[in-house]
Amino acid sequence: TISAALRKAERVRICYNQEMESHKNDKNKLFSELYGVLNQKVFRYIYFRTHDKNVASDLTQTVFLKTYEKFDRLRRGEEASYIMTIARNALIDYYRSRKITIEYDEAAPSVNPFIPQDDSPEEIHVAKEDVIFIERVLQDLPETDQEIVKLHAILEWSYPEISKHLNLKEEAVRKRYSRALQNIREIIIKLYPDYE
Q1: Which residues have CB under 8 Å from 91's CB, separation 6+?
Q2: What is the pTM of this model?
Q3: What is the spatial distance between Cα 72 and Cα 80, in angstroms, rounded to a whole number?
Q4: What share of the chain in percent tops pLDDT 70?
């Protein structure tokens, strides 16, 4: 009976270990898929704010490392929202640690992923000027509206994604985006009266 109990305990231990290994493999597979889908999105989100590829790469890695550590506790279907919240918090921590005020760096467009580097020098110059112009126009908007415009128009996030990320109702995001576009148009008309 003692040997039967030991054999049963050994079978339970083996089953438990197999189940844990299977769970670990499932976790790694799910995480790998999520990483594949969201890695560039997180990188662009961070890069667009830091204008530094190395910082964006490091912070993106940090975001996914923190996500992996908490992955078992996340509710399925909410991983993307969680990851983008971690990305936002990582940016806040980055700026706090360096006591940096967020300003536009005119050198940044030279390595901007939105500017094709294989174009002619003239096309690259025009693209850089466009980025500078967009940044100047956006800085006249409230911070939340800037964020919504960048996320939707530039990074191509959906309204539901932005809604979750900024903790706003989806309808509020749509209205703010629409109002921001109207304000942008007015700003452009002020800067370039012949635009109309």
Answers
A1: 46, 49, 50, 59
A2: 0.51
A3: 14
A4: 67
